Amino acid sequence: MSEGKKWKWIDPHVHMTSRTTDDYQAMADAGIVAMIEPAFWLGQARTEVGSFKDYYSSLVGWERFRASQFGIKHYCTIGLNSKEANNEALAEEVIDLLPKFVLKEGVVGVGEIGYDDQTKAEDKYYRLQLELAKKVNLPVQIHTPHRDKKSGTIRSMDVSEEHGLDPTWVIVDHNNEETVKEVLDRGYWAAFTIYPFTKMGNERMVEIVKEYGSERIMVNSAADWGISDPLAVPKTARLMLERGISEADVHAVCYQNALEAFGKSGQIKEEDWSGEEGIDQRALFNGNSVLRGGQKPQVDDPNIVIN
Ligand SMILES: [Zn+2]
């Protein structure tokens, strides 16, 4: 990276609830200033609506606080994921719960929603949530299926248009070489998840930016409880710079585009992290701290005046 320049990154899709404080520290050290945590499934299906309620509460509460203790701004998207949409009795209850959470502070969209196996139930709850997003004026974060990726991606966009959503309010995630052209041509934001060892490594990402440029493209880690890399955004940025992609394009796909797309919510602004606030690990959330007995809190004192 060029000398003397302090790069800032945004990871617009990362499931921090499943990650450790070491990850937060590493992300902060690598220059990540803000992140978006989409509501998703937890590796096994929930059986009660109360589990969703507590999960959404933690996304707007404890997890936000935890990020702040490492100097990172945390935002989230709220929604019923496609896998769990297949439990219809429970899905009905979750749909009723969503309006209580989508307008909370720090919620920058309805997501991640869309198709997994492209079942009838998934289609029903995807449509209901598109309507909700429209009603409350929030962007939509779409999870595209890993199986039948291309047809699932096209269907996600077709249905979104049937419901009258403006493509510039819709972020289509988990793209690859097969989907990117149509997603961009139709006016949507195209997000790419960098998966270590599999599908979408970051060398492929470099080639995509070389071919399509940086307009409406963004990169994320989608790091969760599986094998994933919470530093995928800064690592990919670095690789792009090394492979000759311009600084302006790297800034766009690893920071600015996410800010612009999710900024339509009115809930995420650059001023949120450009102030002098600093870290104060003496802070508590409902009486709880990220520190354990005897650990020394990090406190950034912006006051450098000596009296
Ligand atoms: Zn995800």
Automatic annotation (TrEMBL):
Keywords, sorted A to Z: Hydrolase, Metal-binding
Pfam families per the UniProt record, alphabetical: TatD_DNase
Molecular function via GO: hydrolase activity, acting on ester bonds; metal ion binding
Family under the similarity heading: Belongs to the metallo-dependent hydrolases superfamily.
PANTHER family (alphabetical): HYDROLASE TATD (PTHR42658:SF1)
Protein name as it appears in the record: Hydrolase TatD
Species this chain originates from: Flavilitoribacter nigricans (strain ATCC 23147 / DSM 23189 / NBRC 102662 / NCIMB 1420 / SS-2) (Lewinella nigricans)
